[in-house]
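worker-3 :: picked AIMP2 thioredoxin-like domain-containing protein
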Amino acid sequence: MYNLKPIVTDFEVDKPRNMYAVKEIHNPTDTFLTKLEESLKVEKEGDLNELVEKQELLLDKLKELKRQLVSLQDGLPLCRKPAQPRSFPDDLVISVDPSTIPYSLLLMQRSSLGFSVTFYTHSSVAKLPEEAKKFAEEIQGLTSGSGSRVTVIWRLGLPASFQVSVGVQGSCFWGEDNFIRYLTRLGLLKKSSDSDDLLLDLTHHLLALADDKKEQTRAADRLIIALKKQKTSQSVDLATYSALRNFRNASKGGKVDAVLKELEARL
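worker-3 :: tokens ->
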């Protein structure tokens, strides 16, 4: 290769003399940093020990306060009756895709939660499926006409297959699993543990896979396995029954019949 002509040559730069000299604190031979770290370490440990002592003292005071409150409670004329559950919410409007029937409403009606159901068909539905007709006839046969009013509208083109509107100017939410969560928080349905939410999510996932039969079958298997592994509650049984029965309607098979009978017996 050819040699390049050097462009910059080595040269010395004069240090300015109008600034004061700064001591190099990173000098390995300097013990300044070592002493500083040791002093800070001692201070941190001292502060931490002092904080721990204050926390222990505060906890002792809280325990003593709790003991005093418990002793006072025994002498007060308090009501010992359990909290009464709230009534079924009135003026519920549920818009449902006819392909995913809310069978949880049927089971709630059988358990006498105290509500009446009225059905309407939106203009987006040209013809109501036979399963939806049977469901409406069965649930209306159980409706006494008294209690809270629930309106079910068969409708297509919804962002989700199940939409709930509470009251005229109330809240709106999606999913049969969330509807069951809503009733559980009102005290109308029983819940056993926080793990119920996982099973409710599995039921929602099963219904969401309606367009993929293979994945929906796998989701049904996972739901049944999870159902057998842990103790379930009323809210989980309602959501599981509805999801599996819709799965049976779509698959036209009897794979989940035994599980459905078991759930019906419990509910």
